[in-house]
Queue: 3 jobs
Job 1
Amino acid sequence: MSLLAQVIAWFADPTHWAGADGIPVRIFEHVEASVLSVVVAAAIALPIGLLVGHTGRGAFVVSSVANLGRALPSFALLLMLIPIAVNLSLDFSTWPILGAMVLLAIPPMITNAFTGIREVDRSLVEAARGMGMSGPQVLLGVELPLAMPVLLTGVRLAAVQVVATYTLGAVAGGGGLGRYIYDGFARQDPARMIAGAVLVALLSVATDGAFGVVGRASAPRGLRARGRDTGSIVGAVPNPGV
């Protein structure tokens, strides 16, 4: 039997769709942990990126930290966090991978939040201030709406990276779709391993598509119109991956 036929047979096996190791359970575990990681990272990165972009202060520090975060491999972060979790009596199969995913998600979010605010037309900002708007009013009422497509691009990139990289959690005994890849390798079962990789790839594509729809919907009407003319959302700033 060819490898492709083995993978198809693996998916067709009803036992792989039920129980604690079933596909629905593993997908739920993967999505749950990914969402938690992205939400925590957003709570840290977005306020900092927006504030630095609005004031212009601390830009060099933020840029340096973001670049450092990109340079650190997620697997190395995971290995460094495991002994810390053990010393703190935390579940080393859960907290180290969540910590590593949060640190992975912060750089693209903080960079795009900062970039989006700084790219807002300064004449609009000065006009708002001339109308008597306070700093927070300018940020929330003028800069943030115009920067939203770029900001969501950072969240989108972070979410896709987290979904694709959370498979590392299986190395520390965590759940999610990475279990199929890790267990398939340990059992020398290539069909299970490839099936896990296919599921992760499909989930990553679905995540990217969902955020793409949200990003287009969040763009101001004028930017959406220009985006249709040019084939993309104006102002979206791509970010490198891990």
Job 2
Amino acid sequence: MFLNLRFKLGHGAKPLVQVTIIRLIGYREWTETLGPDREHIIQGIQAQLHRELINEFSKANAWAHPLRYDYLFAITNGMNKEELMNIVKNLGEYSPVPLSSGTYADANPRVAEKEAFKLAIRAGPWESLIGGVNDDLVAMAHIDLVDSTSSTEWTSSYQLYEHIWNVINQVRLYLAPYGGITLYLGGDNIISIVTPTIREKDLSPLSELINARVGVGIASNGRRAMKLATEALDSLRQQGKYGVLVLIER
């Protein structure tokens, strides 16, 4: 399986993950203009922006997720500046404040995110700064805790929620050396964007540590990588297996 990956990258090559950060300029200041009875307004706008973020990037075969809601995160391998600017423009129709964006590619997803963030901060309203675009492979690890849902029968929904966040922190710390950007998907599902050179043996100790199935997808864009990661997870479930399964786009 990984012979194909090495052949695609070339000897000694490191794939670059392209990250885009979208900044809502003046978001905090805007919230303060709404008065004290504002949280329901803020939550409603955040939910709408979240929906449009997912829709816009999914149509471009990318993968996106909100960060703090005043910053939005996307894996955008294969997308060019014009495509990114169009998405920022479209999202602006649902944002109460101007947007800016930064895009950067690096072998380490965490480095790419950090540099993309710097560019988004530098960019003016409705400006997109690009520190390089890339169409290399993306790797996403979809993590599903085993039997966590049934545990609500003897705990509670909130205790399960607390447990999930404790596990997310464990995953975050474990995957940081692999460039891991770890996010909560809801329920008992966690996603982490990692370096595409990761191996099943790298993730097996994590699977055992947190009692989870881990499906990894490696593909040419974020949406396909997520699809493969979920397929890997579904395959483990259907076979009644635990551990890690990596699927690579051919």
Job 3
Amino acid sequence: MPAIHELSQEAYDRLVSEHGDLTTRGRIEIAKKIETARELGDLSENGDYHAAKEEQGKMEGRINHLAALIENCIIVEADGSLDAVRAGCVVSVKFVGDDDVEKYLIGSIEERREGVTVMSPGSAMGTALMGAKVGQVVEYEAPTGAKLSVEVVDLEA
């Protein structure tokens, strides 16, 4: 069974738009590139042809990835009331013993926003933060085995 991804309405709409663009305009453009490269002659030594075919493969991979995300997602509604860390929110944390505050968007890489690092809710720190409230300190085990503690400083929808 495929994994279910939580997406904001904004991210969902952006992914649907990108999928539509790639399956129409993108496929037409890559077909033209391949046809133009074919006209250059011998395909076995035709760098343009091989580059276009590689680009086509990457694009088809992205199309398939987007289709799977769109099909297997739930839309997380931002209702404005945010009293605890949840998927789709931006959480500001500081590591215990450190004064630097770091911001993370909890969710899928497809939710990315400029200036904010994306953290999977399934990561060690993401799992520990889920449900935490401002002022709460949570502990988790880093992949290195070290025990770390972070304080939730702020939450944004």
